[in-house]
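In this section we walk through a basic example: taking a raw amino acid sequence and producing a predicted 3D structure, encoded as discrete structure tokens. The instruction is simple. Fold the sequence below.
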Amino acid sequence: MLFDQVIPAGRNARQASLGFAQVLLGMLANERTLIYATGGLSATGEEIEITNCEAFSASAQCGYDSIGHAGWQVGAGVEYFATDRVSVKAEYLYGWYDNEKLTLVRDGAERLESDNELQTNTLRMGVSYHFNGQ
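The resulting token sequence is shown next.
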């Protein structure tokens, strides 16, 4: 699970999957520090569920849908070689995913339709071990 979020009016959203292909363009700030920009195509799966039916209307029914989004990510980062074999990095990514029609269903019957656009902000940090050194 990549994120869980409670959306106003009794909707829960969960990003169930994420995949991307990105390119990186960077420059050495010094012999141990790489500063870079990155971007590329991305795809994600999202699951949404209505949990508080009365928040929509007295006659609304609870429901669930799972949809896929295609989009892109852009960002920037820095990687620092603490030793010849160990590096630490931090990276920020902004993601935008296309507008998909969401159809919530319960017991096989459609209950609510809406358009759903997804945007993400991701901060990644990591430690890497390089078997061959720098």
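Looking at the output, two observations stand out. Residues 71 and 97 are 4 Å apart (CA to CA). The chain has a mean pLDDT of 78. In the next section we compare this with other chains.
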